């Protein structure tokens, strides 16, 4: 035990001896170059010559650091506390502290940009353009690495600071971007104990030398002259353009009449904004996606003289002459950086500060414009005004259009108010306005009220509500001879119905400008006896006899009357139009029916024979014979459209090009001809076999008189269709929803086709290029019929602009003629590719990247790009159709290639993935069946791709997938047909039959289409408003009479 103890003591002695030979600094760490004191990098912003930092704050929205000078100042300092030391000083400090240290040998502030003008590039080189721009703004920089040298001036009792002095910052919002660089040196200290007991100190610089690091880079805002800037710009207006901004001239007018009167884009919205309450030369503006261009107009106060012009810098770049304009105190120009903000510096050339004046006037102003992205759901700018004229709606000469420029203000209620003008020809009678806003163009979620705010003779403002006519809400636009203003209020809605009337979304106020004010049409009729009658003609209310003192005068607001003309002694009556004629020279036509309920009207012989004279004018008075079998007379105003054309001798001649109705129709029952008690009864079987509309999808019909379009009184039509068409989609809509049948047949064929009113039906064409389709409409009574014919000719030139195939000299791809874009992979060493397009119609014209293709492949260079787009344009033989296909050629190795679009393979291990190219989900486990994405029901087609914007039928039920591919619910309006459907909110199934929703009854037909107008069901008549709601427990004026409806909606 004692031996072990002695051995242990010996080891301790040896170990102690070894330790004594090691330098005393052995255990101390060498300080790192980035171990820098916080005080070395803490920058301060203050007025030059002062020791007090400027007041600062952090913007809660942008997190920017803002320093504010209330007065207009000349010099600002950005500085650091000077703690620099020389190498000798650091060595001595290490010896004194007997430890290794790291010290700062250099501190530097580097200004990299001022007001978006770049001074120093990212690679550290100087940016000459930016330096010239800063100098042009009147700004200078003075740097110092120690006290003096033109840099920040130390003040009494303040420690020495270094940095940069900025002179001449404009009044307003200045953005300063700078970095702080620190250079450090580490000193390694060690001690060596000599054999004689003395200690040798050794402090040497780190062999790695000095290390320079950028501790941080930041952007601050210096607001110069906050109090001074108030009212220097008296007004800031933004002009926001939706659509083609170039269509407007410098007076905000559109001189092109076609664009000015089109009731759709372009539109201009001018908004005057107030400055940010916390920063007087900063302005905020909401930018919607619909915006195509944005301009500003700054109006300067009287203290600023702009007579000698200005220099303007936008985002650090000097604006060239012509890119902005100066008009008096107004400065205007374009704004382009609408995703974030624009910073504009205006240097006034004529400013001089009077040395004797105590008021300092700025030579330059820095204005910041911030942009806030506006959600499309809050964009209430117009896409289309949706104006319908009550009279002359088919006549383009009778104008009704909305003005192009609006002034936008924010009301105290929080919604925007758009003030503009509307121009209406007095002959239009009334107008209906159902606008499409940007918000509502993709989803039918806005409804409107339309009124006229007019001034009466005393100058008091009154409001006139709209009226329901022909299924639409119409409003008078010229109630007052002094002032009329159309007011359109937008609300949350669905399918035209307001769902939340407590909050206005937006309001349009349109001052009415009446065109052709003295050229309007007004309806008035007079009735007089003929020589064969001893009795005066008398009008009464329907059902009220002369004996009961029911006599009334004709007024245009009353639509139905009883007429007594002296039967049986009299056989005729003189009907005269005595209203005011416009320059359309209106006249009347008279029709008769043998039953009070019949809509099968026959024009009176005298009316038919009222032909135009040599000046194409017709008589306004008709002596019509009334057979005793007639039970009803209908009078309707008409006008003939007349155009000036050249005859065979080149002379101008008047030509009648069409006949159109104008105004309301008026019904006169003839009770003297009633054989018994007869009252109007819409429940009787109708004899109306007329069509209301007849269309061939994509083409226009021409009647036997050469007029374009369909007219119910014209039976024969022709049209020319594409050469390659073998079938056509025909849609026939009957005037009476309850017609017994609509049967179509084709010449040379025994086949017949049952057409459903309002639905598209595909009919085959003859192969010889000429097809006559006969359509027989049989009325509800099963007796009355009407026959229409359409002669269809196939064009001799083809309209096919499709490709059959594309052959490439090399590459991996699959061409699908139905797809507009085809992806192609070639190896990286491929520098060109030969393209051979093959058209379905050999007579079409093809070009590749603008080079016309004949019979030889076209070579396309792929050099210098990993991706090359090749456009193939096909123009049909007749020149009417154009289609463009795009080849996206990628130069990439096959191992890196994955083209889901062409081979449906995926490198993903998951069966469900998102296809970015086709913008849809793919589920490889689904085939024409339901699935889920994000927990929501979706439908995958036979290619396992998500269905979007389409109907699907499964299990005998119909469903609709919306634009996101999710199963839709609620109301759905078909964009193509305008028909309305309802999808069950729980399972998305299309509803049929009766449905009660929000205490209103609706009827959805066997095809799911929401019913509007009359419906005969189980022997009862019902009426549904244009919004689909059944009329219950009220009386309603419909067409030519007043009808009563019970609690169950049935007419009684």
UniProtKB/TrEMBL annotation:
SUPFAM superfamilies: Cell wall binding repeat. Pfam families: Cadherin-like (PF12733), Choline_bind_3 (PF19127). Residues 692-792, 814-891 form the Cadherin-like beta-sandwich-like domain. It comes from the Bacteria. Cell wall-binding repeats lie at residues 991-1010, 1011-1030. The keyword Cytoplasm does not apply. Keywords: Repeat. PROSITE patterns: CW. Gene3D superfamilies: Cholin Binding (2.10.270.10). The keyword Repeat applies. This is Cadherin-like beta-sandwich-like domain-containing protein. It comes from Clostridium diolis. The lineage of its organism: Bacteria, Bacillati, Bacillota, Clostridia, Eubacteriales.
């Amino acid at each position: 035990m004692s031996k072990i103890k002695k051995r242990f003591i010996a080891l301790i002695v040896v170990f102690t001896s070894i330790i004594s030979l090691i330098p005393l600094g052995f255990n101390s760490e060498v300080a790192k170059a980035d171990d820098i004191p916080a005080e070395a990098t803490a920058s301060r912003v203050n007025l030059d010559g002062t020791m007090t930092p400027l007041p600062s704050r952090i913007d809660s929205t942008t997190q920017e650091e803002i320093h504010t000078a209330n007065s207009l100042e000349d010099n600002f300092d950005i500085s650091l506390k000077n703690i620099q030391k020389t190498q000798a000083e650091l060595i001595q400090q290490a010896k004194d502290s007997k430890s290794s240290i790291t010290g700062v040998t250099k501190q530097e502030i580097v200004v990299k940009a001022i007001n978006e003008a770049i001074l120093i590039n990212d690679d550290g080189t100087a940016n000459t353009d930016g330096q010239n721009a800063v100098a042009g703004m009147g700004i200078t920089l003075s740097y110092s690495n120690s006290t003096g040298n033109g840099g920040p001036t130390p003040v009494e009792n303040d420690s020495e600071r270094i940095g940069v002095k900025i002179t001449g910052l404009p009044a307003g919002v200045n953005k300063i971007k700078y970095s702080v660089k620190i250079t450090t040196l580490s000193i390694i200290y060690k001690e060596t104990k000599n054999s004689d007991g003395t200690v040798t100190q050794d402090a040497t610089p780190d062999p790695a030398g000095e290390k320079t690091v950028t501790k941080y880079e930041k952007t601050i805002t210096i607001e110069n002259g906050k109090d001074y800037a108030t009212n220097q710009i008296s007004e800031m207006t933004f002009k926001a353009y939706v659509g083609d901004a170039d269509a407007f001239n410098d007076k905000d007018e559109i001189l092109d009449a076609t664009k000015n009167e089109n009731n759709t884009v372009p539109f201009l919205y001018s908004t005057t904004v107030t400055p940010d309450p916390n920063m007087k030369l900063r302005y905020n503006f909401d930018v919607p996606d619909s915006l195509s261009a944005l301009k500003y107009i700054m109006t300067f106060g009287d203290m600023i003289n702009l007579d000698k012009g200005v220099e303007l810098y936008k985002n650090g770049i000097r604006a060239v002459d012509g890119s902005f304009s100066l008009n008096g105190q107004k400065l205007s120009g374009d704004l382009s950086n609408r995703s974030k903000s624009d910073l504009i510096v205006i240097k006034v050339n004529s400013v001089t500060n009077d040395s004797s004046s105590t008021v300092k006037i700025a030579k330059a102003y820095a204005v910041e414009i911030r942009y806030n992205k506006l959600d499309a759901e809050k964009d209430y700018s117009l896409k289309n005004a949706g104006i319908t004229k009550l009279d002359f709606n088919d006549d383009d000469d009778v104008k009704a259009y909305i003005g192009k420029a609006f002034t936008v203000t924010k009301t105290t209620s929080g919604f925007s108010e758009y003030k503009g003008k509307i121009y209406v020809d007095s002959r239009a009678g009334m107008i209906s306005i159902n606008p499409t806003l940007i918000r509502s163009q993709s989803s039918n979620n806005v409804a409107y009220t339309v009124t006229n705010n007019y001034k009466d003779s005393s100058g008091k403002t009154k409001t006139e509500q709209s009226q329901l006519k022909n299924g639409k809400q119409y409003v008078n636009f010229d109630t007052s001879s002094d002032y009329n203003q159309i007011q359109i209020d937008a609300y949350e809605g669905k399918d035209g119905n307001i769902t939340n009337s407590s909050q206005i979304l937006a309001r349009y106020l349109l001052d009415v400008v009446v065109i052709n004010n003295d050229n309007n049409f007004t309806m008035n009729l007079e009735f007089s006896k003929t020589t064969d009658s001893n009795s005066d003609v008398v009008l009464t209310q329907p059902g009220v006899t002369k004996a009961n003192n029911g006599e009334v005068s004709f007024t245009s607001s009353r639509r139905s009357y009883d007429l007594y003309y002296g039967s049986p002694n009299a056989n005729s009556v003189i009907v005269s139009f005595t209203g005011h004629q416009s320059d359309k020279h209106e006249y009347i036509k008279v029709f008769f029916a043998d039953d009070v309920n019949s809509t099968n009207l026959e024009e009176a012989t005298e009316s038919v024979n009222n032909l135009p004279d040599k000046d194409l004018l017709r008589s306004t008075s008709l002596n019509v014979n009334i057979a005793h079998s007639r039970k009803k007379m209908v009078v309707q105003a008409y006008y003939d459209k007349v155009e000036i054309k050249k005859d065979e001798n080149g002379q101008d001649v008047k030509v009648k090009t069409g006949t159109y109705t104008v105004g309301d129709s008026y019904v006169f029952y003839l009770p003297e001809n009633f054989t018994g008690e007869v009252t109007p009864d819409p429940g009787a079987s109708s004899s109306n076999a007329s069509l209301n509309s007849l269309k061939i999808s994509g083409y226009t019909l021409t009647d036997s008189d050469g007029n374009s379009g369909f007219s119910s009184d014209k039976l024969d039509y022709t049209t020319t269709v594409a050469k390659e068409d073998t079938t056509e989609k025909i849609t026939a809509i009957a005037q009476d929803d309850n017609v017994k049948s609509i049967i179509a047949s084709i010449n040379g064929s025994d086949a017949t086709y049952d057409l459903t009113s309002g639905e598209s039906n595909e009919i085959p064409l003859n192969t010889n290029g000429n097809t006559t389709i006969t359509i027989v409409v049989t009325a509800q009574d099963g007796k009355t019929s009407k026959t229409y014919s359409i002669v269809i000719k196939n064009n001799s030139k083809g309209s096919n602009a499709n490709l059959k195939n594309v052959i490439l000299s090399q590459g991996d791809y699959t061409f699908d003629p139905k797809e507009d874009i085809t992806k192609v992979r070639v190896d990286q060493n491929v520098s060109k590719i030969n393209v051979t397009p093959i058209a379905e119609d050999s007579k079409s014209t093809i070009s590749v990247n603008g080079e016309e293709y004949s019979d030889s492949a076209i070579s396309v260079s792929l050099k210098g790009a990993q991706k090359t787009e090749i456009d193939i344009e096909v123009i049909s033989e007749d020149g009417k159709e154009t289609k463009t296909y795009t080849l996206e050629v990628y130069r990439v190795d096959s191992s890196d290639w994955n083209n889901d679009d062409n081979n449906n393979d995926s490198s993903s291990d998951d069966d469900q993935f998102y296809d970015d190219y086709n913008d849809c989900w793919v589920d490889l486990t689904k085939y024409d069946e339901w699935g889920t994405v994000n927990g929501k029901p979706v439908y995958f087609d036979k290619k396992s791709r998500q269905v979007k914007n389409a109907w699907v039928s499964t299990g005998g039920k119909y469903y609709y997938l919306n634009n996101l591919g999710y199963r839709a619910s609620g109301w759905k309006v078909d964009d193509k047909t305008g028909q309305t459907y309802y999808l069950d909110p729980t399972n998305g199934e299309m509803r049929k039959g009766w449905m009660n929703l929000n205490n209103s009854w609706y009827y959805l037909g066997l095809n799911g289409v929401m019913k509007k107008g009359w419906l005969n069901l189980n022997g009862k008549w019902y009426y549904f408003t244009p919004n689909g709601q059944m009329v219950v427990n009220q009386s309603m004026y419909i067409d030519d009479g007043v009808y009563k409806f019970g609690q169950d909606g049935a007419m009684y």
